[in-house]
Design a protein that fits this description.
Elements: E1 2-3, E2 11-14, H1 19-32, H2 44-58, E3 62-69, E4 72-82, E5 87-88, E6 96-97, H3 102-115, H4 145-149, H5 170-176, H6 194-208, H7 212-221, E7 230-231, E8 245-249, E9 252-256, H8 264-267, E10 269-271, H9 273-283, H10 293-300, E11 318-322, E12 325-334, E13 337-344, E14 349-355, H11 364-380, E15 404-408, H12 417-422, E16 427-431, E17 437-440, E18 450-457, E19 460-463, E20 469-475, E21 478-482, E22 487-490, H13 497-512, H14 516-526, H15 534-561, H16 564-572, H17 577-581, H18 583-605, H19 610-632
């Protein structure tokens, strides 16, 4: 469905009490905390201006907002939930996918079971699982719920089939029967993992003999009165509407069909702004009626830091900082939906902002964070402090900045999805003569590519004219770059995007150069000159076939990527588009293997001139280079997945 309509300026408010009253309480709390910058209350019009400015500037159809303070919540709906129907966002009844904010619900439900003694955060998760078993890849180092809830279990990323359409219950278990590979010992490195959170949910469900959607309902949704919150079943009714998610493509809003997801503990919950407000009120309270105060404190407390001077992980939450003011938060991103929940426990403040569109720059998640930061600046006062814990000391693994190329630890080395995760994600680090550091590709802001960082001592760097921090460290022999919400490994030269692109282009060009040979053969025939011998003709056919088939694969992928969003959604849903598209590549591999034999025969039997033999050899080697580059990301053998 293609629509070309700008977001409406319509705004719906429910449970409204003047924002100056709610946020004045936060301002009093800030004053009591003696912050350097005085806080002041955010007016309702300011909230609308902050959010709708992002919507209008970036083509986002609708938004829902909840702001909680002092046990009260104000909710807002902006723009349209459905463009075709002209349905406005109603914060009381319009539900948005909250995507990975679901992880905080999963962690909360699990902590209720920890609180009553059913689960233990530091027990081998295999003790709780019925039909799924985590391999003992690192003997004596089992994966625990604490590892799973802090993204330190050591799994590689798995995105193929992440949004596969399923129900709940046993289908969660089915999606976990083939777990991602364990590629690191647990507890060492932060590597964001949807599969890890889904596995934690399954372990909790198995421990009490229930489906995890029932665990969520019985232990979180119902006790908190979240009547419009549930696991997404892929359906909506007039009395329980679900906002349509949109991608903005060539100026037109394209609707996504959001389906039920197999890994729903990691990202499958839908909720209204009103319910998110009630949920934040609970998280900012004393734990009643779900958790003891100690359990709630552990849920929000720091659990893992790659570097204690940077933000780290809580259980199902991650840390953020406004200067030295600690916050716990979680973002959520899916096709056409993006949001951020931020809790400031010391100031009894919660903010949730969600959009139902990717926006013109595909960076709605960034705009949600920017809107949140604007509200925080208004309520808590702008801070010139670095965004990190005050007084933290450097770890033993701290290291000075190392120039090179870095890539996120959120990678997959086992299947073709790694191409989508890796290509274009390179982060480059340059160490300048004055000791400052320049990075490219690290910024969350789509308009900023290059950033500059000043040394703060012992491998810590602060952004010039900014408040963000990064740090360098070592994990064994690996050089690491840490940002608080991410960890990046230094890569080998052959893993760089530019090397991959150069290898594929060079290989195809060498193969394409052989096209001159059949043309020359036709000219010789017309002039009455002898044609090539049968064996040599076969050699040319093999190499030409490899080139044509490889080009066909590239053309097919280019056609798919013309609508990148739709293509990625198909991969996330588990559709076999890549294995099918790569069939020509597999056949090209067979043709190339035969052409390598032909290379040996050409030299042994002296086919053609020496120059032509060399040309043919280089062309076949070009095919080898191209196919090797493809297989580095598991594309050449992807069709074999159709038979597994």
């Amino acid at each position: 469905m293609l629509i070309n309509q700008k977001p409406s300026g319509n705004v719906e408010r429910r449970n409204f009490r003047p924002m100056r009253t709610v946020l004045a309480a936060a301002a009093v709390a800030v004053a009591a905390g003696a912050l350097a910058s005085p806080a002041h209350a955010q007016e309702p019009a300011d909230i609308e201006a902050i959010v709708t400015e992002a919507m209008d500037e970036h083509g986002i159809p609708g938004a829902m907002v909840a702001i909680t303070s002092g046990g009260a919540t104000d909710t807002y709906g902006f723009g349209l939930a459905d463009i075709d129907a002209g349905t406005p966002v109603d914060p009381e009844t319009t539900r948005f996918p909250i995507d990975s904010v679901s992880k905080t619900f999963t962690a909360t439900a699990i902590m209720t079971l920890v609180d009553d003694g059913t689960l233990d955060l530091d027990t081998d998760v295999n003790e709780y699982l019925d039909n799924v078993e985590v391999e003992d890849t690192y003997p004596g180092q089992p994966i625990t719920l604490r590892h799973l809830l802090t993204h330190t279990a050591g799994f590689e990323e798995a995105i193929i089939g992440l949004f596969a359409e399923t129900g709940a219950g046993d289908r969660l278990e089915e999606s976990m029967l083939e777990l991602p590979e364990r590629v690191r010992p647990p507890g060492e490195v932060y590597a964001y993992s949807n599969s890890g959170l889904a596995l934690a949910g399954l372990a909790a469900a198995d421990a009490i003999g229930a489906d995890f959607d029932e665990v969520l309902a019985d232990r979180v949704f119902e006790p908190l009165g979240l009547d419009h919150t549930e696991v997404n079943t892929g359906t909506a009714t007039p009395d329980r509407p679900l906002a349509t998610a949109y991608a903005l493509q060539d100026g037109e809003q394209v609707a996504y069909k959001r389906k039920a997801e197999s890994d729903y503990p990691a990202g499958g919950i839908i909720a209204t702004a009103a319910d998110m407000g009630a949920y934040m009120e609970y998280q900012l309270g004393d734990g009643a009626p779900l958790l003891s105060a100690d359990a709630l404190a552990e849920l929000h407390g720091p659990q893992f830091h790659a570097d204690p001077r940077l933000p780290g992980s809580a259980l199902g939450f991650y840390e953020m900082f406004h200067g030295s003011t600690r916050m716990v938060a979680h973002g959520g991103d899916g096709p056409g939906s993006h949001g951020l929940m931020t809790l400031v426990p010391d100031h009894d403040l919660g903010i949730y902002i969600a959009f139902n569109g990717d926006g013109d720059d595909g960076a709605a998640a960034f705009h949600a964070e920017e809107a949140t930061r604007a509200i925080l600046d208004s309520v808590l006062g702008e801070s010139s402090e670095a965004d990190g814990p005050a007084g933290a000391t450097a770890p033993e693994t701290a290291a000075e900045a190392a120039a090179g190329t870095y890539r996120s630890t959120r990678m997959n080395e086992s299947d073709y999805s790694n191409l989508f995760l890796a290509i274009g994600s390179d982060i480059t680090v340059a160490v300048e003569d004055d000791g400052t550091v320049t990075t490219t590709g690290l910024s969350f802001d789509p308009e900023v590519d290059e950033q500059h960082w000043e040394p703060q001592g012992e491998g810590l760097y602060r952004e010039v004219d900014g408040t963000r921090l990064i740090a360098f460290g070592a994990n064994g022999s690996d050089t690491m770059l840490y940002t608080g919400d991410g960890a990046y490994e230094q890569t080998a030269w052959y893993e760089r995007t530019d090397v991959f692109l150069a290898a594929t282009a060079a290989g195809l060009l060498l193969l394409a150069s052989l096209l001159a040979w059949p043309i020359g053969n036709l000219i010789r025939r017309r002039r009455g000159r002898p044609a090539m011998r049968p064996g040599s003709r076969t050699a040319i056919v093999l190499a030409a076939a490899a080139g044509i088939l490889s080009t066909a694969f590239i053309a097919t992928m280019a056609a798919f990527l013309a609508d990148t969003d739709a293509f990625i959604v198909k991969v996330l849903e588990g559709a076999p588009v890549v294995p099918l598209a790569a069939i020509p590549l597999l056949v090209a591999g067979i043709a190339t293997a035969a052409a390598l034999v032909a290379v040996v025969m050409a030299w042994a039997r002296r086919w053609w001139t020496a120059g032509r033999r060399l040309h043919y050899t280089l062309a076949v080697l070009g095919a080898v280079v191209f196919l090797a580059a493809m297989e580095f990301y598991h594309f050449a053998t992807a069709p074999l997945l159709l038979f597994t």
